Records
---
Amino acid sequence: MMDYIVDGFIKAFFLLIHLDPATTSAIAATLKVSTIAMIISLTIGLPLGFVLGYFDFPGKRHTKILVDTLLALPTVCIGLIVYALISSRGPLGEWHLLFTLTGIAMGLTVLALPIVIAITAATVENIDPDLKLTLVSLGAGRHHILRTCLWEVRYGILAGVVTAFGRVLTEVGIAMMVGGNIKYHTRTMTTAIALETNKGQFADGIALGIVLMAIALCVNICLSFLRKQ
């Protein structure tokens, strides 16, 4: 049993060192869809999360319940909804997004957006109320108050970004349903790991698993570096 695992790791390093085309294709596809999904979800989610956490408005409580509910939405349901929207019979069918990386990125954006909004809102809500009163008493303007409050909660927001990125990077169901797991086209690291392991290609799965863990480690190192600044 141990020989089987050791052989898998040896073959995995061989695949990575020699830049196996199937492995590098899956890595590139994963990084591309994850990056697109994170850019869109952060662009939309950070402002919405700040508004939800900082301001009081009618319907705020119900909006928070809705966002929190979306956090628990199963990924297979997200994949089903996106599939229905972009399939040939769906409202976005004429854009031919099914079984494309763009379609996968859409699904991952739907997955990440509630996470970014919810964590940003929760972080902003925990801002010390005395901070704003102090800034007002010192004559600070609205923009100054806003920048100071955001700076105070920067680590909480960064943690939210890392959490969302982790979910997007390791997602399987959406990529499988919307992308179709097409080799050299829409096959991501997670779908490749699932497929190759089922086929008995243990080394391929280990190689991609190593890359996934390396990416997660790099992200956490970057986060630790930013915290020290």
Note: The chain has a mean pLDDT of 88.
---
Amino acid sequence: MTAWGALPMLAVMLPVLGMVLALPAGARGAERITLALLPVGIALAIGTAAAVQASGAPLVHLLGHWAPPLGLAFRADGLAAAMLVTAALVVTAVALFARADFGTAAGAPEARTAFAFWPLLLALWGAINLAVVATDLFTLYVALELLTFAAMPLVCLSGTRATLEAALRYLMFALLGSVLYLLGIGFIYGAYGTLDVVLLSDLARAELPTYVAVALMTAGLLAKTALLPLHLWLPPAHAGAPPAASAILSALVVKGSFVILVRLWFGVMPGLAAPAAAQVLGALGAAAILLGSVAALRQERLKLLVAYSTVAQIGYLFLMFPLLVAAPGHEAYAAKAWTGGVLQAVSHAFAKAAMFLAAGLIAVRIGQDRIAGLAGAARLLPVPVLAFGLAGLSLMGVPPSGGFAAKWLLLTSAIEAGQWWWALVILGGGLLTGGYVYRVMAGALTGDGTQPALRRPDKREKIVLALAVVSVVLGLLPLAAFGLVQVGRLDLAP
């Protein structure tokens, strides 16, 4: 424990405490509490990242000064710190954007949706933070459940039949994932008597119970991350939710289970992962990249296109598994694969939040979100269309965006590891992404858009543009700046 060790714990407790206070405060009070906590949350996340970077070691806080396995620990390594900062910034942008839809003006009656939105946003924030800093597999299960039961109501806030059906489908996949994860926990505890990831990294053996447990937990986490073919719940859920909810679901919620999967593979059983199993995960990721992109190309609605794009972009995250499993003894390309995977998660979070919010502004202003009806949108809404294009550049992997840096690191790592087939997938995925982004931009940039009544300024456009710019600027940072994400890797630390 260090003097700054309490920061990760405070980053979890802050939004959870805010949610508890917001519930009896009504819609107007919940909004005020949320807005008041945003700068504190950003400060805690940046403070955690700065402390991890400065010390070159993870921050650890033992709850009640009881060390595992008797107590619980919060551990913020480089990956956790990067995700804490990403979550704080995205939640802040979404909260400011959402004031137009879920804010309650002075003297106005409080709406049901506003009363639900703000506590759920705080619950999601707390759950994401818990998912990235907890080290106990059961505490991670609690974080997954909190994520599910905060995200599911956001999907059906509008109360329409389509969104209710999407929410129920999401719930079914999530519960299936929870059952499988919980069964895996049972096997782990029965074999080793502890659920702490750090302790398990020394205890885990290459035995059948370990492999059965990890297989069950991996399948459960894939369902929650929506990796193809377990992605069926994601497009209708993300496309049907309000724009602010879609942004937070696509940017952050699917990343929580992904981080836990990384902890499981490279924390619980370092060096024990079977290369064949890692290749299967990589193959599923490759299929998601290619088939998800083709599905995005075929969509008629803008939000569905963006949702299928999420299915495809999630696939890139899983290319790091076969590269890292083959990496022991090859620190150089292992570091590239790790940094590429984490940077893909971060840059995608900002880009996809920008895309969903831009799509929401476009749909509200022109009254529909069919791609065929976007003619003239760039004249009416130049800033949202620009933001959509910038975020699209990052998803394509065009220099110098954050998406380019992530995909370049994964591509070069694949070539150096002798796994050239992943490089072909990355190149093919970039071309397909360019196809569906071009389809939207070509439609928006054509036509005269002569509807002056629709041309009115909206402060939210600046928020959308800022998110898109961040997704691009990440690629301008020197590679040494990403040394943060290398701190505390459980599997490959020198």
Note: Strands lie at 59-62, 73-76.
---
Amino acid sequence: MAEMTTPSAPASQVRALPLVLLVLAVAALAAVPFALPSMQLLVNFALAKGIAVLGVTVLLRAGQVSFGHALFFGISAYCGAFLIASWPGADLVVLIVVGALGATVSGLIVGLFVVRYRGIFFGMLNLAFSMIFWSILEKFYHITGGADGIRLPRPTVLGLSLERGPFELVVYYLAIALMLGLGWFTIRWFASPVGHLFQTIKTNETRLEYLGVSPKRALLSGYLLSAALCGVGGALMGITQGVVTPEYVWWVRSAEMVFIAVLGGAGSVPGAFIGALIYETVRIYASALAGDVWQAILGAFLLVIILFAPGGIVGIARRIGGRS
């Protein structure tokens, strides 16, 4: 009796499917300001958080979890706020670049210390640095504005002062462009020799030492990338909200980033943005419809994902796609 085989899709179609899905997703995001204008701000928040979560995702590829990466999220936002306070009318792009640079330099300072540690010590040391910075923001009220934070006025766009509506539209599409550009760059970095060395820390760090490669240096390279990504997300969030507060570096923000990374799919680049979009949607609607228990709803949602789909939303999608 001849063996029955299931017909499979041609390899070219299988390879083209992610690209088709990406084009459809970008088209849907681009249509939001016109089709669902009430969702524009929510999606903008999700994209900013998604870029920051991408930084946490980079570290997960090396098997490291940071419970303090909101530090770079907040440093970048405050860099932008201080810059525009001293230079009114600073350009939008300049704010993001300066914020990302501030986060990267901070990442170098903190990274030189924390890359010596692994596991829970790595995670808790990052948390400690973020809480130290949070205390500085709270205590130095005359500089940082304390718990009230600093207002971040609307920057110019290529030298033009835009009204609120057009400005928000520019920020929204800039967020989409950053999602695509930084997502592509991160995927290419993972595929590069440096990225491969970085990911080997998770599987066989000892082998790196045998090859004469410093694991600390390999981890530091990824740590700097993760800090820069968190910085871009923080600057974008500060510009979108128009105010930066110590809440940006509070430990809950760091936990939120890890939560979203696991929800979307730990280590997955698309998962960072999918998780952020789902998280923001559930958070906004759950807090509106069940104000007292929305955190419990989010927690139960994550519990279900961890128990039944450890690969996150992306893992579920891949399993469904594999069966079709």
Note: The first strand starts at residue 150 and ends at 151.
